[in-house]
Write a structure and sequence with these properties.
The chain is mostly helical. It has one domain (about 1-60). It has helices at about 1-30, 50-60; strands spanning about 40, 50. The protein is globular, with a radius of gyration of 14 Å. About 5% of the residues are buried. This is C2H2-type domain-containing protein. InterPro entries: Znf_C2H2_type (IPR013087).
Length: about 70
Amino acid sequence: MSLVVGHCRRAWRRAVRSYLLVCARDDAAARGLTVPDGVWICGRCHQALLELTSLREHLRVEHAFP
């Protein structure tokens, strides 16, 4: 059973990461901004970050996400 749980967790994480990327791109497009590859935008405060690790750190520190 643990193999199934591990697979589901990995799939969920991939889906969340994909969703964050798509939402950031859609938000930028809705605001009329051109976002090159590699730019991440926080969905809460709209801060632009150049790396995914920076976005994760920002979310963890500024918005108290785990």
